[in-house]
Design brief:
It is a single chain. With 134 residues, this protein is an alpha/beta fold. The chain has a single domain, classed as Response regulator (Rossmann fold, 3-Layer(aba) Sandwich). The chain is 44% helix and 17% strand. It is built from 6 helices and 5 strands, in the order βαβαβαβαβαα. The chain has a 5-stranded parallel beta sheet with strand order 2-1-3-4-5, sandwiched between helices. Helix 2 packs parallel to helix 3. The longest helix is centred in the first third of the chain and has 12 residues. The radius of gyration is 14 Å and the shape is globular. The two termini are 16 Å apart.
């Protein structure tokens, strides 16, 4: 599995998750970028034009659900996949996130393979390990 040449933006305020994702994604060749606030995430998304965003819903300055539609509108020429990574397990929150434009919804604690599978699906990257099972 390879994320070479992919710019990934993670908007999350949990240091341990950012560290874990940085190590995991950079080991697959991705360029890792992060923000710990909604405002910082929006600004970075506008300047970076990432290939995919991983968004927490509980941010110190704003609810991630409120910025989700704004993230999706940043680059109208290109579909920006947004994967919500949150502690919210309620069906209502999942429904609201999907209606706001989320492309996938993963709850914390999470298994990195589940997140990677969602990222590969959204980025349309073939997973050779899955192909080996066919």
């Amino acid at each position: 599995m390879n994320l070479a040449n992919k710019n990934i933006l993670v908007i999350d305020d949990t240091h341990s998750i950012l560290t874990f994702l940085r190590i995991s994604l950079e080991s697959l060749g991705a360029s890792f970028h992060c923000a710990v606030t909604a405002a910082g995430g929006m600004a970075l998304c506008e300047s970076l034009q990432p290939d995919i965003v991983i968004l927490d819903l509980n941010l110190p300055d704003n609810e991630g659900l409120k910025i989700l539609p704004r993230l999706k509108r940043i680059n109208k020429e290109k579909h920006l996949p947004v994967i919500v990574l949150t502690a919210h397990k309620e069906q209502e929150m999942l429904t609201m996130a999907m209606e706001a434009g989320a492309d996938a919804y993963i709850t914390k604690p999470f298994i990195v393979d589940d997140l990677l599978r969602a990222m590969y699906d959204q980025l349309h990257i073939r997973n050779d390990a899955q192909l080996a099972l066919v």
